[in-house]
Design goal:
Blueprint lengths: L11 H13 L1 E6 L3 E9 L4 E7 L2 E7 L3 E6 L4 H4 L13 E6 L6 E6 L21 E2 H10 L7 H10 L6 E2 L1 H13 L26 E4 H11 L8 H9 L13 E3 H8 L26 E3 L18 H9 L4 E7 L6 E2 L9 E2 H11 L8 E8 L2 H15 L25 E4 L19 E9 L4 E10 L2 E5 L28 H15 L6 E5 L7 E7 L2 E12 L2 E5 L9 H10 L2 E2 L4 E2 L17 E2 L4 H10 L5 E6 L6 E7 L5 E9 L2 E4 L3 E3 L2 H10 L10 E2 L2 H9 L50 H6 L6 E6 L3 E6 L9 E6 L6 E5 L3 H16 L20 E5 L9 H10 L1 E5 L13 H5 L4 E2 L8 H9 L8 E3 L11 H4 L5 E11 L11 E8 L4 E4 L19 E5 L6 E9 L5 E10 L6 E8 L5 E15 H27 L9 H7 L16 H4 L4 H19 L1
């Protein structure tokens, strides 16, 4: 690559050279599982980075808009695999691209040789070219664009419209076709053909027709969009030329075509958000820290849940770059040095020093204002000294060690603390520090093996003993030693063991080739007839079928496969993939594997498929297997091309979904296609089918038979699901049971049972929260130690229910010593009744401004202490963190805590939910500094957040018109709908209807009633747009969102640029909405003026009947002109109770109050 300057400076000329080289392609080392020399190229047409090994084979691509960071040096896990000295790349010639739309980012780690004077360039024929596209290719492309393919006849008509020849499109024709498709939904233009429109829309018959003239567009901007800058015609002209592609049309009097006008409406330049609110207000950064909301993270090191997820320094980098200013470090004693992880859990551990270095490198990339480190200390004194040394060595002058002002009586300001890192840490006691037990996490935690009577195997669960109960989470998914080892099993080309072996393979290939034309390389793979561990590759060449043995071998305990002895592969799948990309060379021929011959109806060989099973029988089978994700597929009665998948979801419910066979494809829902039912099952084993449920447990006839004959086979996963009639007491029941699923009685002596959710208090006390799979009450069990073991486990601990002898839970651990620890805790519980309820109320009494107090989300001072809490927050800092039950890393609503002045409301940034999106919206203010000044009103002695909720400030009327380029949900085409929500003091929500099978350019009809939101607290109210898609179960699935503080919303026809769950932009995706904003006084005035105008019209009519003299107030204009001259003594704000009284006042007494209202608003915004 072009070299750097001597001082590391890059000239513009060198930048141009590098850009040119990257567009042509540069041969670099790509660090993945192994270091490979590949060609890396920037493709400007598609805005992608691609890395390839050959001219016709792309290894991978990433979108430029998904790049979050480019980091110099060998600073990624990819480089850590090559620390053995074999890699010769210098630190200065390596860099990593971090990209993606999830919390944990993907990496592309690259290196170049130092002595390369000039990049190796690839041949010209490698460059990405788009010569033409056929109708067949277009049919495959349109579903990827979230657009349902029309009929072949309709597509042919579109080809003819754009002048295509022989069913192929060149680039210009494709561009025209795209415009035609986008123009199909031209109902948007009806908005601008109404009498109330600010300009006259021209010809709209075609997308390239001239529609909007310069002066018409200026009127639209001034009167509809309320853009004051549009009074300058030069600025309007400049804006128009940016949306006109044809340079010949960029004249002094530009005109918009229909497509260009729509492009403007959906553009970021027409965004609903006023960017001036995203600018830094330097004057607002001089208040004490206690006057700000501060962007804060909880357990910053975690990338997932609080029990089993990975701890990573990259989580700190991600949070800091997202604008977080307060991060948390849970510090524990490690082997020779402190470590960071979530104590007493299975989360991974990372070095304290690595975390400090990552914070130092990224603390001030997004914001230059101070970073606060919230330290949760569990280290002994010796390692705390190590921590102090590391802080000083790494942070240097950035670390705040002395007061900013010695005699200060309040906290310093963000401006005074620019570039500083502040430590928030509990003071050491006189005795020093030591490790203390955190009783919130229970009496015992860890992994246990639990016997599963469904699968007849041991499964590993994370378990916690707390409050005399054993809580266990979902079992760990079985990790395969080699994830690619059995990949071939789910491939369409693998036929397993064939009954007639070679003859059947030849027959299948011959039939397939006769049907498709018979390309050389058409193939299938089957198990060898002769050798148990080998396979046979059968393929078509020169009009006949040939067979080749795939041999297996073993080396160092690992199995490998090969066709030729000099080239080994770790799996059969790898063998086939290699020979699909590279030719198979023999003495007589050379060919690549091409088309795969699929199995004829492979589902017939699967245990989960039933050809003769009714809906009722399927439900009965599923209700016997008490496992979420149990499933079967059945042929629907009397319909040979129709199937149904029946599966069990949460709460014991059984659901059905229809699968229709159309031609050679199986259609689930309306747009999700699969080549076989086996492919469908394999896909939904990896991806959720319904909510979070994946297909996990095939309901085979053998499993059903076992559950029909064995008593209490499912005891681990369900207690008693229904009771006999004679067990019911007429008065108070002695015991209570909970149904795990709904049961409809089939005989007179049976009861109907409705499943109910666990009581809220149970969830509050549950240390595993939503991740809890089940609970065993140890105090009601006898404990047995099976010394002889059970089912392969040498030592087993059994908890046997005292009331039901047949109900037992078998537990095992990794070692006898570990099992004994569990035994001791359980034994203590059975010997005595224990009460381990620890409630600690934190009260706010006396304090100094130097203190920081931390509160659990549900332990803040109550409503009776709100005033005291507000006064505390005016002087000193408070931090709020999630309760311990949020083990799945869910978040709480930050609004009530912001409303009482809490500063650091810490959220789980790794969870992309509504509350992190509200947090991102709040801190999008003030230039993403992470500090937002609370309104002056909140520091007033008379401020009461409850009273503020009753004062109406203004109303917002919203209408969703259309959307473009929505994200694609998996394999199906989106059926989107939009939810509009006002978040803050109230939760108001409206949603559009569902638009079926179009995520490219849906248009929604105007609702019968306008959507009106009432705003009480503009500083803490947010307007949120959420785009969901309705799946085949009529459930909503998140696609995109955009959340804004209402005080920065612009009126008119506006685009809403959509973002992902982490508030990062989605390329091209946007909504078109219409918004009108009117404060309370304006509405009152409008009603009063309408009534007065109506009265004046009647008086004028009456006057004309009685006299020929002219009436003085003869026009609406006169009324408007006369009104402002009047004076008024009223200065109070309009409250809810006053709105009705105001309508009784004459117009002259109302008008001056509008000015007073503006003054009050400006004070509130300060």
């Amino acid at each position: 690559m072009a070299s750097w300057g001597q001082q590391g400076e890059m000239t513009e000329y060198k930048k141009i050279l590098i850009k040119r080289d990257m567009e042509m392609g540069v041969v670099m080392t790509v660090f993945r599982q192994k270091a490979e020399r590949l060609t890396v190229q920037v493709i400007m047409e598609t805005r992608q980075v691609a890395w390839t090994r050959t001219a016709d084979k792309t290894d991978g691509v990433l979108d430029l808009f998904e790049i979050r960071e480019v980091r110099q040096g060998r600073n990624s896990k990819d480089f850590q695999r090559f620390k053995d000295g074999k890699d010769k790349h210098d630190e200065n010639t390596c860099f990593t691209i971090f990209y993606g739309s999830l919390f944990v980012l993907n990496t592309l780690s690259l290196g170049d040789h130092i002595n390369d004077k000039q990049c190796k360039r690839i041949p010209e024929d490698f460059l990405c070219v788009f010569p033409s596209i056929s109708m067949k290719e277009l049919k495959a492309l349109l579903p990827l664009l979230n657009y349902k393919v029309p009929s072949s006849r309709a597509l042919k008509d579109k080809f003819q419209e754009v002048g295509a020849k022989k069913d192929r499109l060149d680039f210009e024709q494709f561009h025209k076709l795209y415009n035609h498709i986008m123009f199909e939904q031209n109902e948007i233009l009806d908005e601008f053909k109404k009498e109330s429109c600010a300009f006259i829309l021209g010809n709209t018959d075609k997308p390239d027709a001239s529609a909007v003239l310069l002066h018409d567009f200026q009127r639209f901007l001034i009167y509809e969009q309320k853009e004051t800058w549009a009074n300058d015609l030069n600025q309007v002209r400049e804006l128009m030329t940016t949306f006109i592609d044809d340079t010949m049309r960029k004249t002094n009097d530009p005109e918009f075509t229909v497509s260009e006008f729509l492009s403007f409406l959906f553009s970021k330049e027409n965004s609903v958000w006023d960017e001036k609110f995203s600018e830094i207000s330097n004057l607002d950064m001089n208040n004490p820290l206690s006057h700000y909301w501060i962007n804060s993270s909880h357990n910053t090191y975690l990338t997932g849940d609080q029990l089993r997820s990975e701890s990573s320094t990259e989580a700190y980098v991600r949070c800091l770059r997202l604008g977080c200013r307060c991060v948390e470090l849970d510090c524990w004693e490690g082997p020779g040095e402190p470590i960071i992880y979530h104590g007493w859990t299975r989360t991974t551990k990372i070095k304290f020093e690595d975390v400090v270095k990552a914070i130092n490198d990224h603390a001030f990339v997004t914001s230059e204002y101070p970073v606060i480190l919230s330290i949760e200390e569990h280290c002994p004194l010796e390692q705390q000294r190590q921590m102090a040394r590391i802080f000083r060595d790494v942070f240097g002058d950035k670390l705040l060690t002395d007061p900013v002002e010695q005699m200060a009586e309040q906290l310093p300001s963000p401006t005074q603390l620019k570039g500083k890192i502040i430590l928030k840490h509990k003071k050491l006691t006189v005795e020093g520090a030591g490790i203390s037990k955190d009783f919130r996490k229970g009496q015992k935690q860890g992994d246990l093996e639990m016997w599963d009577p469904v699968d007849q195997r041991w499964n590993r669960h994370y378990c916690v003993i707390s409050n005399d109960k054993l809580y266990y989470a979902e079992e760990y998914e079985q990790e395969e030693e080699d994830p690619k080892k059995d990949l071939h099993i789910s491939e369409p080309w693998f036929h397993g063991r064939m009954k007639e072996g070679r003859l059947m393979a030849e027959r299948l290939i011959q039939d397939y080739c006769a049907e498709t034309g018979g390309r050389d390389g058409t193939f299938l793979v089957r198990e060898s007839d002769t050798y148990v561990t080998d396979f046979t590759l059968s393929f078509w060449r020169s009009g006949r079928v040939q067979h080749c043995r795939i041999r297996s071998g073993s080396e160092g305990g690992h199995t490998f496969y090969y066709l030729t002895p000099n080239l080994h592969f770790p799996s059969v799948y790898s063998v086939i993939q290699h020979y699909r990309d590279n030719p198979l060379r023999c003495q007589d021929f050379e060919l690549r594997l091409t088309d795969a011959v699929p199995q004829p109806n492979p589902h017939l060989h699967e245990g989960w498929f039933y050809s003769n099973l009714s809906r009722g029988q399927a439900e009965d089978y599923l209700l016997r297997i008490p496992r979420d994700g149990a499933f079967l597929i059945r042929q629907r009665e009397g319909e040979p091309d129709s199937f149904a998948i029946t599966f069990r979801c949460r709460d014991g419910k059984v659901k059905h979904c229809r699968i229709q066979k159309e031609g050679n494809m199986y259609l689930l829902g309306t747009t999700t296609e699969f080549e076989s039912l086996v492919e469908l099952v394999n896909y939904f084993k990896k991806k959720p089918l319904y909510r979070k449920i994946k297909l996990r447990y095939p309901v085979t006839p053998e499993l059903v038979d076992r559950f029909s004959t064995e008593k209490d086979c499912a005891s681990l996963y369900e207690m008693k699901t229904y009771v006999e009639p004679n067990e019911i007491e007429p008065l108070l029941p002695q015991s209570t049971v909970r149904a795990l699923y709904c049961y409809q009685s089939k005989r007179p002596d049976e009861l109907i049972h409705t499943h109910t959710h666990t009581h809220t208090q149970d969830m509050e006390d549950n240390p595993l929260g939503e991740l809890c799979k089940g609970v065993v009450d140890i105090s009601k069990c006898n404990i047995q130690n099976l010394k002889n073991g059970k089912s392969g486990m040498p030592h087993v601990l059994t908890l046997q229910d005292m009331e039901q002898d047949s109900l037992q839970f078998d537990l095992a651990a990794g070692s006898l010593e570990e099992l004994f620890e569990w035994y001791q805790v359980a034994w203590d519980i059975t010997q005595r009744e224990m009460s381990k309820q620890y409630h600690r109320e934190q009260e706010v009494y006396s304090y100094t401004y130097k203190e920081i107090r931390s509160f659990m989300e549900n332990k803040i001072p109550g409503k009776s202490r709100t005033k005291d809490f507000l006064q505390y927050n005016c002087k000193a800092l408070s931090r709020i963190y999630p309760k311990g039950q949020r083990v799945e890393s869910s978040n709480y609503d930050p609004y009530p805590l912001w409303a009482v002045g809490c500063h650091m409301v810490a959220l789980n940034f790794q969870t992309a939910d509504k509350y992190t999106q509200l947090n991102s919206a709040l801190f999008s203010l003030n230039g993403h500094t992470g500090y937002v000044l609370q309104p002056e009103l909140m520091r007033d002695d008379g401020y009461n957040p409850q009273q503020e909720k009753k004062k109406v400030k203004y109303n917002i009327v919203v209408r969703v018109i259309a959307a473009r380029h929505l994200p694609k949900p998996g394999r199906s085409i989106a059926s989107p709908f939009v939810e509009i929500e006002l978040c803050g003091h109230t939760e108001e929500k409206f949603k559009t209807i569902v638009y079926r099978d179009n995520g490219l350019n849906p248009v929604w009809k105007a609702p019968a009633e306008p959507i009106v939101f009432t705003v009480y607290e503009p500083e803490l109210t947010f307007l949120r747009f959420v785009v969901n898609e309705e799946d085949m179960f009529s459930d909503p699935n998140f696609l995109a969102q955009a959340t804004y503080p209402v005080k920065g919303i612009r009126s008119g026809y506006r685009s809403v640029p959509l973002k992902n769950g982490y508030n990062e932009n989605l390329e091209l995706a946007s909504l078109l909405v219409h918004i009108s904003i009117s404060d309370c006084m304006t509405l009152v005035l409008q009603r009063a003026e309408e009534e007065l105008y109506s009265s004046s019209s009647q008086l004028r009519k009456k006057q004309s009947e009685l006299s020929s003299e002219p009436f003085l107030y003869d026009t609406h204009t006169n009324i408007r002109a006369a009104a402002p001259r009047q004076q008024n003594h009223l200065t109070r704000e309009v409250s809810t109770s006053e709105r009705h009284r105001l309508s009784l006042f004459p117009l002259s007494s109302l008008r001056p109050r509008t000015r007073e209202k503006k003054i009050n608003n400006s004070k509130f915004y300060s």
